[in-house]
Write a structure and sequence with these properties.
This protein has about 110 residues and is an alpha+beta fold. It has helices at about 5-15, 60-105, and strands at about 20-25, 30-35, 45-50.
Length: about 110
C-alpha cells in the first residue's frame, strides 16, 4: 500500500475522531474508544479488533495498541514534517542567494 500524500494525511487526520483514544480489551475483541464527548460511548466503539466471528485477528491487542499510538502520533509527525519543509525551503533560498552573490562577485 502506498502512503497517501501529506495533504491527504492532514485531511484524514482532521476528519478523524479526536484523541486521545483508549483501548478496552473484551472477551472476544479489543474496543477502541474516543474521548468523552466525541460521540462514542461504551457501547459504540470507534474501532473493534478481535478474533470473534466478525473480527479476525490473532494480534488484536497489538493491533489496537498500534492504531491508538498512530492516532496520537500522526498529528505531531505531520506538524514536524511541515516545520522541516519550511526550514528546508528557507535554507534553499539562502543558499541560492549566496550562490548568486558569489557567481556575480569579482574575485
Amino acid at each position: 500500500m502506498l502512503l497517501p500524500d501529506e495533504e491527504a494525511l492532514v485531511t484524514l487526520e482532521a476528519a478523524a475522531t479526536p484523541g486521545p483514544w483508549t483501548n478496552t480489551p473484551g472477551e472476544d475483541a479489543n474496543y477502541i474508544y474516543g474521548p468523552a464527548g466525541s460521540g462514542y460511548s461504551k457501547y459504540d466503539p470507534i474501532v473493534c479488533t478481535g478474533d470473534d466471528e466478525y473480527f479476525v485477528s490473532d494480534r488484536a491487542a497489538e493491533d489496537a495498541a498500534f492504531i491508538i499510538a498512530s492516532r496520537m502520533a500522526v498529528p505531531e509527525l505531520l506538524r514536524r514534517l511541515a516545520d522541516e519543509r519550511k526550514d528546508h525551503a528557507r535554507t534553499r533560498d539562502v543558499l541560492r542567494a549566496e550562490n548568486e552573490r558569489i557567481r556575480h562577485s569579482r574575485w
